[in-house]
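Why does this matter for the project? Reviewers at the last site visit asked to see concrete outputs rather than summary tables. In response, this paragraph embeds two records directly. Each consists of the residue sequence and, immediately after it, the corresponding structure tokens. Nothing has been edited or filtered.
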Amino acid sequence: MSTPQLLMIEDDARLAQMVGEYLTQSGFGFAHALDGASGLELLQQRSPDLVILDLMLPDTDGLEVCRRIRALPGSQAKVSVLMLTAKGDPMDRIIGLEIGADDYLPKPFEPRELLARIRAVLRRRGETPSETEGPAVMHFGSLDIDRNARSVTVAGEPADLTSYQFDLLVAMAERAGRVLTRDQIMEAVRGRELEAFDRSIDVHMGRIRAAIEVDAKNPKRILTVRGVGYVFAKQQD
């Protein structure tokens, strides 16, 4: 198995050195860029498995860098992104998730928590279905979910989802017709527990709907059950 490669885009050189030493000792390849422009250049040169992206950068903010990553051609646009945000600023976290970050971690953080988050994101990205999980391709009307290719199409057109959003969609599709709470959905993909008043699951659901619904404001595939959670419709067009 090849060594997972990480790229950290962070203007605090001392922090990046500390994180790099810790992650290297934990079995990862590590590269570092001090600003967004050089980070994007390194990403295209090295094609890392995951980007650790600071929100505050000297040349541009991390949200704009994330947008540019998602606009890159080919598979590089699908690289996992873990965003570092200012503690106590939920709006930045919500916006980051909306534009395609897979997870976030508030500063200051413990290196062990960063490591756990990285492993969780990469595990979700690299998981393959077992025989007990059902068919490799699930069909719901014009919606096709291919587990092996980790791709989603609607009427033959690709739907743009992050790795984490793909896993959320698969978890719901496997339980089509069942009303699931937010905690049950998160638990199904072995994600972190929800923080109090954390809206991240709703943000992800909004992104998934935007990708797979004909009209995201009038969803027919993922329905909200007020006061409970969500249900993935069994019968779809």
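We now turn to the second protein, recorded in exactly the same manner.
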Amino acid sequence: MSLEMQGIGSTGGNGPLIDGLQYANWSEKIFRQMREGGVDAVHVTITYHENFRETVLNIERWNRWFEQYPDLIMQGRTADDIVLARETGRTAIFFGSQNPSCMEDDIGLVEVLHTLGLRFMQLTYNNQSLLATGCYEKLDNGITRMGREVIAEMNRVGLVIDMSHSAERSTLEAIELSTRPIAITHANPASWHPAGRNKSDAVLQALGASGGMLGFSVYPHHLEHGSACTLQSYCDMICRTADLMGIEQIGIGTDLCQDQPDSVVEWMRVGRWTKSVDFGEGSAAAPGFPDMPEWFSDNRHFDNIASGLKSAGMNETNIAAVMGGNWQRFFASSFAAL
């Protein structure tokens, strides 16, 4: 593999490099790899099935990391923090939740969580929640009565609605009900690879038309041919989706789970809702994390995607938009209260 394919090269242009979703086993090693890769901002999952108090404990852990590694990372609350991170050679960390468990059944906690730094919240993980239907339920009942109220409150305070793990009707209704553009931070087109979590063209067109954002996942279960997916196939897919949604509505959301033990997969998929093991997108034969594709295994490899987009025919301006410029614009319009 060439130096460029190892992640040593240029993303094209001088725009920011932003990842729309990661859930790594955080460490100094990973924080340093972010800096080696020139990653300016990352939306990180800080909670899955945790309740409010447990989520606060996770925020406390992040506060200690911000204290320990002030030269590497900083908390992001607004898009201006991306500018500050770039100026000071750090990575801005934006908090997100992959389930509404953190707000429990109390709509008042939406504003409290935003005050603590949460900037994204999924209305569902894979199952039915109090707010909407997850992508693995047989019946999609759409947005619930409480979901409608929570969407309005999230719009008000500046907490982004994320429908990455939600079912089709629920996602389309969220796009329609929300007064602010929503995000699907980590998924790919189902027309490219029909994973349960990937999104139909109807959803992607509605998302693009509403000004929402799609972050393209590198998680192997979301890729054509899984871990064997080629960089060309991935980048060709991004170019086709740009034609479908509009170049300004797409970015990268790797869903990178670097250094996580296989036991974490069970927490992600099972949480507390069942006593049995649910492998979701995996299988009983291979319940752990799949191998990453050879062209992307950590934060030093974003340049491979940029190089692949150039080979696929995308110009430098559009590459810079996909690699972070679009996310920065979306952050700027999404995180402040109305």
